[in-house]
Amino acid sequence: MAKLVARDLGDTELINLIGEEKDRLFKLRFQLATGQLENFSRLSQTKRDIARLTTELRAREIAAAEAAAGGEA
Questions:
Q1: DSSP state of 9
Q2: Residue 56 contacts residue 14 (beta carbons within 8 Å)
Q3: How far apart are CA 11 and CA 54, in angstroms?
Q4: How far apart are CA 65 and CA 50, in angstroms?
Q5: DSSP assigned state of 64
Q6: Which pLDDT value is given to residue 70?
Q7: 11: closest CA among 47, 53, 51, 65?
């Protein structure tokens, strides 16, 4: 993943990037299964990238829910 700060991305860009990273992880796992993967650290790095992006997306969802709940009270 390019060194992007997840906070700078919009929601749709973030969701698209998560999809791309999951696709990359699938391809890496396929390479691992077929014995073609040379750099094993890419697996764990891709998993970490997905976790970071998912965490940012979830934080936005929580903030939006809190803002909506605060507006109702």
A1: S
A2: yes
A3: 11
A4: 22
A5: H
A6: 84
A7: 53
Which residue in this structure is represented by tokens 């109702």? 72
| Under 8 Å between Cβ of 33 and 24 | no
**Apex CA 52: angle with CA 27 and CA 55, to 5°?**
120
First to last CA, the chain: 41
Tracing tokens 């992006």 back to the chain, one arrives at 53
pLDDT along the chain (73 residues), means of 10: 73 95 97 95 96 95 93 65
What are the boundaries of each domain within the chain? 41-73
CB atoms within 10 A of CB 33: 9
d(CA 16, CA 8): 14
d(CA 70, CA 8): 25
